[in-house]
Design a protein that fits this description.
single chain; alpha+beta; Alpha-Beta Plaits; eight-stranded antiparallel β-barrel; 9 helices; about 35% helix; elongated
């Protein structure tokens, strides 16, 4: 039986996504029952601290393209990591190095989330953006229409890069949560027409844009990779803005009717030394 695909159409086997990067969120807690006896052994703690700091500062060849560590507030975890790379094993290697160090026996993984970055199907192409302008009353030959389309076209590459391979901001506060779109009877997101979903997501995006300069986000897709469909990471210049933006956006139709949210992890961006100090290891 002949294959329905030409050989030239079949991509080579690879761990690198065809579009976007792998993303990993990892959360850990110190097991004090195991850790406390270790603290009495100064040589062991010295070796453990060095290994911990090395794990969170990987050598260049092992370092994921994007890496950030943070202290977690509350008892869900004590600290966490978020990483992105075309190579998923670079991400997992950091986890393995952390767990294999002298302090590894006292480090308990509490949660992880595996996903990939993507360009949302609701991000308009230049042509779709132009059609939207026409629907709002713009005329195709007007200078204003042409200027708006040209400006959008020039912004599009930056918008795509921000979704596929974003820089992690060094803002102090952040949070992460997984989410689904509901499949409930009467509120099944996936049975809605694309045009209706696009309209609701545009409203959702407009709410978020009001927080520009105060909050930035990374939305990664986990469909087929983890227990939820998407993961949302928010960074803010102040923790207050995390509460404000989530509260505001939950009134949008896309969230109020169709959003299902998992646990929230709130963190404060910190390096290895600050994590160890905060957690009373050194």
């Amino acid at each position: 039986m002949s294959s329905p695909h030409r050989l030239a159409d079949i991509p080579e086997a690879s761990l690198v996504p065809i579009q976007g990067w792998h993303c990993g969120h990892y959360f850990y807690r110190w097991n004090r029952a195991i850790l406390n006896p270790m603290l009495a052994n100064s040589a062991l703690i010295s070796q453990g601290v060095a290994a911990f700091e090395a794990a969170l500062n990987p050598v260049e060849s092992d370092r994921p393209e994007r890496f950030q560590s943070f202290i977690v507030s509350g008892h869900k975890a004590d600290f966490g990591l978020v990483m992105m790379s075309p190579d998923p094993l670079k991400i997992d290697r950091v986890h393995q190095k952390l767990m294999s160090g002298p302090l590894g026996a006292a480090i308990e993984p509490t949660y992880s989330f595996v996903s990939v970055s993507e360009v949302s199907e609701y991000l308009p192409t230049k042509e779709q953006y132009a059609q939207k302008l026409l629907r709002t009353g713009e005329t195709e030959e007007s200078p204003a229409f042409k200027a708006k389309v040209s400006a959008y076209e020039s912004r599009l590459p930056m918008m795509l890069a921000q979704r596929l391979a974003p820089e992690f901001p060094q803002w102090p506060a952040m949070c992460f949560y997984p989410m689904n779109k509901s499949r409930n009877v009467g509120a099944n997101w996936f049975l809605l027409p694309f045009s209706q979903r696009t309209e609701m997501m545009a409203e959702h995006a407009q709410s978020g844009m009001a927080f520009g300069g105060r909050v930035t986000q990374l939305v990664t897709a986990s469909v087929g990779l983890d227990d939820w469909e998407w993961g949302v990471t928010l960074w803010a210049k102040n923790p207050q803005y995390l509460k404000d933006i989530v509260y505001t956006m939950r009134y949008d139709q896309a969230s109020a009717r169709f959003g299902e949210f998992g646990p929230f992890y709130t963190g404060y961006v910190s390096d290895a030394k600050a994590i160890l100090s905060h957690c009373c290891i050194v």
